[in-house]
Amino acid sequence: MAVSDGVAKGPHFPYTVRVEPRLETSRWLAPLTSVGALIVALFIGGIVIQLGGGHPLKSYQHILKAAFGSVGVFNDTLVKATPLLLVGLACALAFRMRLWNIGAEGQFFMGAWGASAVVLMPLLSKETPQPIMLAGMLLAGFACGALWGLAPGYLKARFNVNEIVTTLMMNYIATSWTLYWVFGAWSEGGFQMSRMFPKNAWLPRLLDYARDVPAFRGLTLHLGILIGLLAALAVWFIVYRSKWGYEIRLIGDNPRAANYAGINIVRNTMLVMMLSGGLAGLAGMSEISGVVHRLQGAISPGYGFSGIIVAWLAKLNPLAVILVSILFGGLILAGREIQPSGVPRMLQGIILFCVIASDVLLRYRVRVVRRGE
Amino acid sequence: MPETSSAVSMHGIVKRFPGVLANDHVDFDLRRGEVHALLGENGAGKSTLMNILAGLYKPDAGTIHVEGRRVSFNSPRDAIAAGLGMVHQHFMLVPSQTVTENIILGLEEPRFFLNLTQLDRRVQALQEQYGLRVDPTAKIWQLSVGEQQRVEILKMLYRGACVLIMDEPTAVLTPQEVDELFVTLRGMVASGHSIVFISHKLDEVLAIANRITVLRGGRVTAAGLEAAAVGKPALAQLMVGREVVFTLQKPAAQLGPVVLELQDICAGSDRGLPALKGLSLQVHAGEIVGVAGVAGNGQSELAQVITGLRKCTCGRVLIHGEDIVNQPPRAAIARQVAHVPEDRTGVGSAPGLSVADNLIMKKYRNAPVATGWVLNQPVIRQQAQQLREEYDIAAPSVEVQARLLSGGNLQKAILAREMSAQPKIIVAMQPTRGLDVGAIEAVQRMLLQERSHGTAILLISEELEEVLSLSDRIVVIYEGEIMGEVRPEETTLEQLGLMMAGTKRDAAAIG
Amino acid sequence: MIDWIVILQAGVATGTVLLFATIGEILAERSGVLNLGIEGMMLIGAMTAYKTAVLLGQPWLGVALGMSAAGALSLLHALVAINLQADQVVSGLATNFVGIGLSLVLGEGLSKAGAISLLPSWTVPGLSAIPILGPILFTNHNVLVYVGYALTPAVWFYINRTRPGLHLRAVGEYPAAADALGINVYRLRYAYVFAGGTLAGLAGATISLAVAPGWFSELTTAGQGWIAIGLVIFAQWDPWRAMAGSYMFGALRRLILDLQGPQILLGLSNPFYFMPKLGFFLQMLPYALTIVILVIGSREALKKRLGAPAALGTPYVRGERGK
């Protein structure tokens, strides 16, 4: 009890708010905070839209319809979600080890380039049967992305070079590299794009089977989504059930303890960056082969960066990445029609901020207590 | 009614942290010109109480009076302004800055421009006044631990502190340096300062204090006892609440062959300076070799060299005759060398992972915890729960994050992990630091048990009492070299102290 | 032939952008806070400054507003990173997204603006007559370049020879010690993050009102914010080295441009002119060079046991219990 010192105190509010470290966390708290953060972010975004002269409620309704309103639109959402899923996995895996792979965009481009090289150089002849051609493209896409991730990974492992800056710089280099080929050796008639891929280099889409299944007419969803789902399962298994995943998690939590436990941090750094880059490379291959069917300068509306947010919102859980990537796929799809064009990017930033801010709730508890208790 | 001859007076102090009541209505009274010891075991609430006095924490309830005036501190600055200065157990010195820069840090003047030469001279003058020698232009990382402590004291004196709070000051000093410190403290008291001496070491408290207050479990069990009038057993009981046995019953050693041998090891420290200079030692199966020494003389590097965490520039590390020097940590782990590191949270555990995950840190590569590439979750959980019971680790479940464990329980978890792996060699560094007496006894019993199973144990500890009571042989390390080897029953504190301060064994002979 | 004087002169001019951004980040990082949102802050500074100049015809006001806008954005990062103790890397990235997004939104239609008043250029009488150094350093430079000349030694002096600079260093190295002595760690970190943000805004304004006037959406900054972060490591957190690195990069940019023109290189016809597609490889150079200087800087740090301020990137929590 507060000891009176004889000086009269005025009436005061009998309750006070106390912030203290949280001792136990329930399993539902993490997803709950993510969802809460999302709602708050949409709210803030609504305010910004309002300030810009729009109608937030109508805008959001429009987004919902434009993304999930019908089978056709949902199909498009899933198509947009496919690269996000793979890039999200790439980031989630790397971030688990506190390897800040900001270079997913560049690895995406290199994967697309690698897959294109198989078709355009060509590395496999035009007559190659589709499964083999696609397998070759997948391999090339993964390999190029993996190499693009390995370079900064090696620098980090050996010289402790900050991977944030190096992966980012590799983004710019990758774009320049791709543009060189698009404008130059592979350019179609002097235009800024390569020639269209032959049909055996296209990932099969639902509408390819429209003759047997009429419901599939017009649905552009391609095999990439399956690749993404399989990758998600694989990453989940690796991180949570395998010995390697344990090492990754331990390094991410406390590298000194990992070293003490005999884990080879150098090797793991390079392996994880390779796998992360490879996944992003697969995203590039999937987009090239499943959607665009050619190599051009504009193949990514910033998937590599959106992937970071997807990973963080999913709290680095590969299965949650699936859900979040669908959500963001819808946002990107619907957001194409929102003016001005910076809104989706800004919204992503706000969402990320809200998620980070909500992370506080995982570490601290806010309690209202009676004064003097 | 606060007494006017009291320098500081605390009444009814209450301080809560999540899950624990650190101070439970504590009263404390410091008279002017005295050395008042605050005694209690680890976790009793002594540091918390003094952190409140130093302005780092705010009490949930209670009052503080300084020189008869009621005060309330919102920050350490207020406390320092009121003349209270704290010398922390873990020094608050910026390693890359000089002595002078650290001493003037946080002060209002000089207003803007730093004239370091002038300030160096002022610091020099202050040193001479109190007899605390240290080079003002040296950078902190270049100083010895004892010198750093002097800087901390000077820091407070420079700010005009009348009351000095010393938190476990002797933990890092040799017995001789402790004597020097006591001389300094008595000198300061004679010139009008008052001192609070926080400690858990009974002998030192009885040697230096005028009065003693004992804390146990957050409560005062004895306030302001005259030191001359009380004896060690009584104090111990007040501290712990039950009869404390001062010596452990240790069966005779059953020695086996030499399992761990170091030959002429040279290694550098993190700073690049030589830390181990041609060090050699041997440990037999079934014996405990204690390494005594003041912190910072190469103990950390010694443990790291054996366990593969640090490279040697020369020498050999032989496990069962096999040289594993400079091989990665896996080599030592594969040869069943257990390592209880000195840094629990920074090296010995992963705070964000679950307790169960922490417990498998050394075992995850092999069956039954893992089959092939896959971890066996049910086995992990079951083994973790078993260890939790066996080693009495207080945790709501094995799935909670390790950072939620208290220091003592985390240490128990680490010991559980290391000892349950049936090691052949244990390198234990400060295994009982920060534990309460019950846990300390448990740990020491565990070590003795391992010893009787034929495990070779290298015990590196700054607690001389612990080294004396547990070891079969004691080696003293000083500046990276072994000063000598003695048997605990044949040596004295004085001889050990001399060796710890750099005298070789023969020169330090009992005479 | 390549005119090196012109290239170095242009290097100083363009490099001033990097100089401001890098010194701003040095201040923030010295206090212990990693600020990865510089790119977004620069962009918002550039956009705000340009928009003010277009709408109100007041370039200096544009500079001030640009700095304020970037500073405000940095406070967002400060709040999340310092008070909420969130991961500073992710917080910085989020700030980036918000900054870029906001700039694009509010900068709609700007690039089509007409001629605007820019900041004045100035030639120092007397000093500009010095051979070689005169034309490079003192001739026909934008006022902001001279600001850069003054800022570098001023910041160096501040950090190393003043009391507040001592506190700054302490807060970044060992905040617990500073806190125990009554220094308000949170307040100082906020202040220096804000300072870093305003300087990033100044860098942006330098682009859009002085060095490369105009508004080209994201291409306005073209990743210079990220290069600045790499430069901080290369500079080993020292303003003078930051200056050297910034000007070097500036010169490189100009060199790349020149190399794509009709030149005679070493007696041969310029391959880059005749095969313009090779220009893409030239464009890679600044980014590749950043990686190189990062490797150099990191190896130096490893060897000399130097490095970042010890507390960089770690949120400060007072009085953590238990050990």
What would you note in describing this structure?
The complex is a heterotrimer of chains A (373), B (511) and C (323). Chain A has 373 residues and is mainly alpha-helical. Chain A has helices spanning 29-51, 56-68, 71-96, 104-120, 130-159, 163-183, 224-241, 243-253, 255-260, 265-292, 303-313, 318-335, 343-363; strands at residues 15-21, 364-370. Chain A is globular, with a radius of gyration of 24 Å. Chain B has helices at 46-53, 76-81, 99-104, 116-130, 145-158, 175-190, 202-208, 232-240, 299-306, 329-334, 355-359, 377-390, 407-419, 437-452, 464-470, 493-500; strands at 6-17, 20-31, 35-39, 61-66, 69-71, 84-87, 163-167, 194-199, 211-216, 219-226, 258-268, 274-284, 288-292, 312-319, 322-323, 337-340, 370-371, 374-375, 425-429, 456-460, 473-478, 481-486. In chain B, strands 6-7-8-3-9-10 form a 6-stranded mixed beta sheet, with helices on both faces. Chain C has 323 residues and is mainly α. Helices cover 68% and strands 2% of the residues of chain C. Chain C has 13 helices and 4 strands. A two-stranded antiparallel ribbon of chain C has the order 1-2. Chain C has a two-stranded antiparallel sheet with strand order 3-4. The radius of gyration of chain C is 20 Å and the shape is globular. Chain C starts with a helix and ends in a 19-residue tail after the last helix. The chains are: A mainly alpha (373), B alpha/beta (511), C mainly alpha (323).
